[in-house]
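Researcher: Next sequence.
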Amino acid sequence: MCVMTSVDLDRDLELQLVSRLREHDPRAFEAVHDAFNTRLFSFLARLANSRDVAEDLLEETWLRLVAHAGRLQPDTRIGPWLFTVARNLHTSYQRSRSIEDSGDVGALGLWSRGSPTPSPLEVAEASELERRVGAALAALPTTYREALLLVAVEGLRPAEAAAVCGISGQAMRQRLSRARAALDHQMTTTDAPGLSVLKEVTT
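Model: Next structure:
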């Protein structure tokens, strides 16, 4: 089972894309969209526990890129920039609606499949673990959930995740540690297997 999905582009290619974005090159927008759209939607859907909300916030994220492309710094890291915008839009949405975390977590696929041809038993076991992990993750406070999603699922480095959330690197490390402990507790109460794979990327 693999939970790490790197958001890193080849740095030379990334710098070229940023330069072209600053010039409003439509093909650069298409390339960035192709690279990050699925990841951004997955992040927002899991963060909001709602596909409908995620779709709205995803559209606004891309609109923000279009609006601000000309003001990007030449050395901008595209992935962290996009996740920062998406995360801030979700935060604003929560504040404006004063909503509580809820939703159909069973509809949100959490992990990618490790084997291209799993057996029926492997499929059943993976689906059950995915359901339990999804439910446990959805029960966490938003600050913990976003930390785990950014680092353990989307593959950002802790320092990048800290920048996305507007906190220090030390604060992010503490948040990740507490988030992992909270997730472990949620999983223990549902008699689910341990999440050693998450421990490896959040310690």
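Model: The chain has a mean pLDDT of 80. The radius of gyration is 17 Å.
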